Amino acid sequence: MEPVLNVDRITKRFKGMTAVDGVSFSVVRGEVAAILGPNGAGKSTTMHMLLGLLKPDGGSAELFGNAPGSKEARERIGVMLQDVSLMDAMKVREVLELIRGYYRNPMPHRDLLRLTGLSEEDLKKRAEKLSGGQKRRVSFALALAGDPDLLFFDEPTVGMDVGARARFWTTVKDLAAQGKTVIFSTHYLQEADDVASRILLFNRGRLIADGSPAQVKGQLLRKTVSFKLPDKVSAERLRSLPNVLSMDLGMERIELVTDDTDRLLYALVTADIGASDITIGQGRLEDAFTELTRTEEGVV
Ligand SMILES: Nc1ncnc2c1ncn2[C@@H]1O[C@H](COP(=O)(O)OP(=O)(O)OP(=O)(O)O)[C@@H](O)[C@H]1O
Q1: Which residue in 35, 56, 188, 273 is a FRET match for 10, CA 20 to 30 A apart?
Q2: Which CATH number do you get for residue 247?
Q3: Which residue's CA is the nearest one to ligand 1's atom 29?
Q4: Nearest to 295 by CA among 214, 201, 226, 191
Q5: Domain holding 154: CATH number?
Q6: How many domains are contained in the chain?
Q7: 155 Cα to the center of ligand 1, angstroms
Q8: pLDDT tens profile 203-255
Q9: In its keyword annotation, does this UniProt entry include Endoplasmic reticulum (predicted)?
């Protein structure tokens, strides 16, 4: 598999705080990789280093074997960042043609409109007159203008309505199926799960999980073991059971959140506390995500 991006222990510090802390990963051709994480996790800083907009304090990155920001790398990438100024005074067509003019093999005009959903009418407008959603479409068109092999999207769907979001991701998947590689950042686990073939989960500047959505979810997912108890059993006693991450002591039922159902169940049954009507439930993914990132905070 052809490596498109190689990141080796990349690090960035800002005035005594470490925004990105020794992150390593690589991405191969045709992957759609989501850089996922809460606010301040280091997603944008990482992306900016990969684009050559920020210089790392340690480690390195290579795009198609070239340094970020080099002419060779820039010619093969397309970028959609947050809050891009679209040269407001120009018409959309002029902006697009200007950017297409920078590239040796720009994407044909017709394909750009088809992929981004921009209309001929939109092209006649000045960028400043566009709605938020239309501006995102133009940003997408600018990212595709050079028909790049590698696309970077920083929180691309912010400001898009549901329909625009769905269309955008369908197009992204089609582009990946044609062999283009896509790296995007997002706060939303669900979005990463729906779209990405690969999830890079960041928290507090570190890469804390890396794998397919199924692998990362497997790592994140916590199950619940719920049961009834005949007599009052102290919370202390329940907490002493193995692999209990948290407890909910209801009037009717006790619910324990665990990262190892088998071990907990065995201990529960052999503890001889009279647990009955035992059920196992699937934890909610969003809860698991919150839990994992919170736990990591405690570790740092
Ligand atoms: N130019 C800068 N100067 C100082 N600190 C910065 C700078 N850029 C980012 N940081 C800090 O580095 C950390 C990581 O920020 P970054 O923007 O990379 O996170 P993020 O994951 O993209 O967050 P968000 O989801 O909120 O966009 C944060 O604590 C942020 O305050």
Answers
A1: 188
A2: 3.30.70
A3: 40
A4: 201
A5: 3.40.50.300
A6: 2
A7: 14
A8: 889 998 899 988 887 777 778 899 999 877 888 899 999 999 888 888 889 99
A9: no
Distance 45 CA to ligand 1 centre (A): 6
Based on the domain organization, do 189 and 50 belong to the same domain? yes
Q: Which amino acid is residue 12, in one-letter code?
A: K
Model confidence at 300: pLDDT above 80: no
| Spatial separation of the C-alpha atoms in residues 172 and 75, rounded to whole Å | 20
Q: Which two tokens stand for residue 246?
A: 């948290």
Helix (H), strand (E) counts: the chain: 12, 13
Distance of alpha carbon 265 from alpha carbon 253, whole angstroms? 15
Residue-range definition of the domain harbouring residue 151: 3-218
Question: Residue 48 in contact with residue 61, Cβ under 8 Å?
Answer: no
Question: What's the confidence (pLDDT) of residue 284?
Answer: 65
pLDDT value of position 104: 85
- What is the spatial distance between Cα 258 and Cα 238, in angstroms, rounded to a whole number? 12
- Asked, for residue 151, whether it belongs to a domain, the answer is yes
Nearest atom in ligand 1 to the alpha carbon of residue 185 is 22
Q: Which residues line ligand 1 (CB under 6 A)?
A: 14, 19, 37, 39-45, 187
Q: Which of 25-39, 58-72, 85-99 has the lowest mean pLDDT?
A: 85-99
- Which residues, at least 6 apart from 76, have a Cβ–Cβ distance to it below 8 Å? 63, 64, 148, 149, 150
Task: Record the pTM.
Answer: 0.80
What pLDDT band is residue 298 in, cutting at 50, 70 and 90? Answer: very low
Identify the CA nearest to 137 among candidates 173, 95, 192.
95
Phi-psi category of residue 221: left, alpha or beta, with phi > 0 → left and psi -120 to 50 → alpha: beta
Structure tokens at 186: 């997002």
CA–centroid distance, 103 to ligand 1, in Å, is: 31
